[in-house]
Amino acid sequence: QKEVEQNSGPLSVPEGAIASLNCTYSDRGSQSFFWYRQYSGKSPELIMSIYSNGDKEDGRFTAQLNKASQYVSLLIRDSQPSDSATYLCAVLGYGGSQGNLIFGKGTKLSVKP
Amino acid sequence: DAGVTQSPTHLIKTRGQHVTLRCSPISGHKSVSWYQQVLGQGPQFIFQYYEKEERGRGNFPDRFSARQFPNYSSELNVNALLLGDSALYLCASSISGTNQETQYFGPGTRLLVL
Predict the structure, then answer these.
(1) CA of A101: which chain B residue's CA is closest?
(2) Which residue(s) pair with B112 in the sheet?
(3) Distance from CA of A65 to the nearest CA of B (A)
(4) C-alpha distance from residue B24 to each of A46, B21, B72, B90 (Å)
(5) In whole angstroms, what is the distance from residue A24 CA to residue A70 CA?
(6) Three-class SS of residue A81?
(7) What is the predicted pLDDT for the residue at A97?
(8) How far is CA B86 from CA A45, A56, A103, B112, in A?
(9) Taking burial as the number of CB atoms within 10 A of a residue's CB, which of A73, A86, A89, B57 is the most buried?
């Protein structure tokens, strides 16, 4: 059973701080990783995708991938109250499971003004 | 460009009834995937369709079925509804549904079974 694990939180950070969200996955052969943001009552919205080991930066967001440790993280710099949401880590299946996104339960982030 | 659209937005049904949910993918996308999200959980994969063919199926009972039309829109059907089918049903589209492709989600259909 392929699994994606996230700390459910809630994670609370003050406005302007760095929020660090973590995710581990069980299938060592996984190649494609995604972070989605989901506001309460809304659908998931893509923030970042990452496929290679290392860091990938997009504005205030940085995704980090370490395939040897089977670990993906998302850093949010200069956190804003509007970043308060649930962050979903997802791993894309491959081979016979291609097209199947496997999600963690999500980490709820609260940014306090 | 329009994103993924889904209809209806909300639906209330009673146990034992049947429901049909609809999805239109982003223009140019040929793959549609369906997910079920219950409260407090991440989305769970139900089906993927590409070029009208089922490419993948998650661990859901046969009460769940889907199809894709020539214009790449898709329907998800659920028969003999149970209380536990109450959830947010999400449709996601991608160009061809293969590895390293991003899936973009529609707004979802919120189903309540009474």
Answers:
(1) B45
(2) B12
(3) 14
(4) 18, 11, 7, 12
(5) 6
(6) helix
(7) 67
(8) 22, 37, 19, 5
(9) A89
Closest partner residue to A99 (CB to CB) among B31, B40, B44 is: B31
pLDDT single digits (tens) A3-58: 999 988 899 999 999 999 999 999 998 999 999 999 999 999 999 999 999 999 99
Contacts of B34 (CB under 8 A, 6+ apart): B23, B45, B46, B47, B48, B66, B74, B76, B89, B90, B91, B92
Do B99 and A103 count as a contact with CB atoms less than 8 A apart? no
CA distance B81 to B113: 7
Question: Is the separation of the CB atoms in B37 and B87 below 8 Å?
Answer: yes
**Does the beta carbon of B71 lie under 8 angstroms from any beta carbon of chain A?**
no
Please state the separation of Cα A36 from the chain's center in Å.
Answer: 6
Residues of A in contact with B92 (CB under 8 A): 101
User: Do residue A98 and residue B97 have CB atoms under 8 angstroms apart?
Assistant: yes
B43/A101 touch (CB, cutoff 8 Å), yes or no = yes
Q: Which two tokens stand for residue A30?
A: 């996984």
For residues B113, A107, B102, A30, the Cα torsion angle rounded to the nearest 10 degrees is -110
Q: Can you list the positions of beta strands (E) in chain A?
A: 4-6, 11-14, 19-25, 32-38, 45-50, 54-58, 61-66, 71-76, 85-92, 101-103, 107-112
Tokens matching residue A76: 């949010």
